[in-house]
Write a structure and sequence with these properties.
The protein is of the alpha/beta class and 179 residues long. It has 7 helices and 7 strands, in the order βαβαββαβαβααβα. The longest helix has 16 residues.
Length: 179
């Protein structure tokens, strides 16, 4: 399975890096491919290292203005012209999406895949990995959107909230019929 992970390129505390590393190992041990922003810095590096060390494949999609930070030694690296093309390519190459901790770029990527699902333009499973309660506020906002009629589909049709990496991977494998 090609698992796209949207996440930060920042250097973060252990409460965020440890679960990210754990999820990366699950990707690698499962024989899956990490599809990610291609950077070799911060949390993106932590995840790529973990996948590679556990025997998984790396498919990076960087962007021209960040190409200097692209990870060397990947199985495949694509350089997109701009952020819009990068996002399109990441989603195109993915069988499933996991949203990890991140900033505005991660939030942009997350809302795009959810909007595509909302309108029936993709059926890829999406997991929001709520590490250390990072997305508690967003989860509450999504529930309010659902409760007040802003979502034409049930929230559970759009995204699965996982508190731990093992739950995220179990959901993805079950959704994709991978045993």
């Amino acid at each position: 399975m090609n698992i796209c992970v949207f996440l930060s390129a920042a250097d973060l505390a252990d409460r965020y890096t440890r679960p990210a590393r754990d999820f990366a190992k699950l990707i690698g041990k499962g024989g899956h491919t990490l599809v990610w922003g291609g950077s070799d810095v911060g949390l993106m590096k932590v995840v790529a290292d973990g996948v590679q060390e556990a025997g998984g494949r790396l498919l990076g999609v960087s962007v021209e203005f960040l190409a200097a930070k692209a990870r060397p030694g990947t199985d495949e690296m694509v350089i997109a012209r701009d952020l819009a093309e990068r996002k399109r390519l990441l989603l195109e190459k993915a069988d499933a999406v996991v949203i990890m901790v991140g900033g505005t770029g991660t939030l942009d990527e997350a809302t795009e895949i959810l909007e595509l699902k909302k309108h029936g333009h993709t059926d890829k499973p999406v997991v929001l990995l709520n590490t250390a309660g990072f997305y508690d506020g967003l989860k509450e906002q999504f529930r309010r959107m659902e409760d007040e009629g802003f979502l034409p589909r049930p929230l559970t049709d759009l995204v699965f909230f996982a508190e731990e990496p093992v739950g995220a991977m179990a959901y993805l494998e079950e959704s994709r019929g991978v045993a």
